[in-house]
Amino acid sequence: MKPRVGVVQFPGSNCEQDCVRAFRSLGAEVEMIWHAEEHLPEVDLVVLPGGFAHGDYLRTGALARFSPIMAAVEAHAAAGGLLLGICNGFQILCEAGLLPGALRKNAGLKFICAWTELRVDNVDTPYTGRATPGQVLKIPINHFEGNWYADDATKDRMVANGQIVLRYVDNPNGSLVDAAGISNGSGNVLGLMPHPERACEALLGSEDGKVILGSVLDLIGRSPRRPASELKAVSGLESAT
Amino acid sequence: MRFTAEVKVMLKEGISDPQGQTIERALPALGYEGVGEVRVGKRIELKLDAGDIDEARAKVEDMCNRLLANPVIESFQVEVS
Is B65 on the interface with A (CB under 8 A)? Predict the structure, then answer.
């Protein structure tokens, strides 16, 4: 059974088709989910793509976190579901409190569109299983607010827990502890500023994005989803309770 | 009753403010010496209905905590009249 991926489209998203194409090329079934929906379809992985959701007015991600779909996305994550936020999606996850910290304006006050090198600092996550410890990935960034911040206690706890999953080799934006991608405590939620979906074809300059996107599909493949209908039939709980 | 609120949102102390730093570096070039601690924030104005001024203030503070400011990096001040 193919892994199923749902890509949420907000008004102002602009990387959703890149995500659809990349995940399809890696063998997933992908569907787009409009932000005004209140329920998620049956998917193994939810992706919040890059862009400028709701114009990024007020702060990046500040309005998107109140889109109707976000309650279902939060419930999905709370139940241990896989949730990936890329760039603006990462900003939304921080605003929603699904990931710690916040993303500030880049230290140099420049919008940066460039290739970056990322070191994989934790290979024991759903998103890095294909990587070797310390492997360096070439993946582009494209953002103005990627300067991740958390207070000292939070940052120290995350470093100790291995939640700073990806670090910039040459920090472009002032991000604390060179963080490029971070996870929540249980690892099912990952947010990263670089765009792995833009680095999945040799023609585009790098295929290293497949390490991240492919890892999570591998994991789904190893632990196949069981449809809710099947679970009910197997357990018989529905009639018993 | 109709109230007017002014909300000031600033980056918390200790959080680096690259906009403030850039302005601070630019001012000496215009001949202003001895300028420091430049910080850049936001001012949000709004009007709202409430039973009394305390209720109005409480409503606006709630708005700040939920939307107008990000408590991870920003602090806010509310004035209601």
Answer: no
> What is the domain count for chain B?
1
Instruction: Determine the Cα angle at A182 with ends B22 and A161, to 5°.
Output: 120
Q: Is the distance from CB of A129 to CB of A215 less than 8 angstroms?
A: yes
Residue A120 CA: distances (Å) to CA of A95, A140, A181, A195, B68: 24, 15, 9, 15, 35
Q: Does A174 touch chain B (CB under 8 A)?
A: yes
User: A184 — phi, psi (to 5°)?
Assistant: -80, 180
CA distance A91 to A145: 8
Contact A19, A212 (CB under 8 A): no
Per-residue pLDDT in tens (0 to 9) along chain B, 81 residues: 999 999 999 999 989 899 999 999 999 999 999 999 999 999 999 999 999 999 999 999 999 999 999 999 999 999 999
CATH code of the domain covering residue B58: 3.30.1280.10
Residue A109 lies in domain: 4-240
**Residues in chain B closer than 8 A to A153 (CB atoms):** none
- For the record, the structure tokens of B67 come out as 């939307």
- Which CATH number belongs to the domain containing residue A197 in this structure? 3.40.50.880
Q: Show residues of chain A in contact with B46, CB under 8 Å.
A: none
Is this complex scored with an ipTM above 0.90? no
Q: Going edge to edge, which strands form the sheet with A82-86? A: A29-34, A4-9, A45-48, A82-86, A189-192, A179-183, A164-168, A112-120, A136-143
If residue A46 lies in a helix (H) or strand (E), which one and from where to where? strand A45-48
| Cβ-contact A85, A191 below 8 angstroms | yes
Strand partners for A6 = A31, A46
Enumerate the β-bridge partners of residue B5.
B46, B80
Question: Do the chains contact at B72 and A101, CB–CB below 8 Å?
Answer: yes
d(Cα A12, Cα A6) in Å, to the nearest integer? 17
Say what the pTM is. Answer: 0.91
Contact present, B23 and B46 (Cβ < 8 Å): no
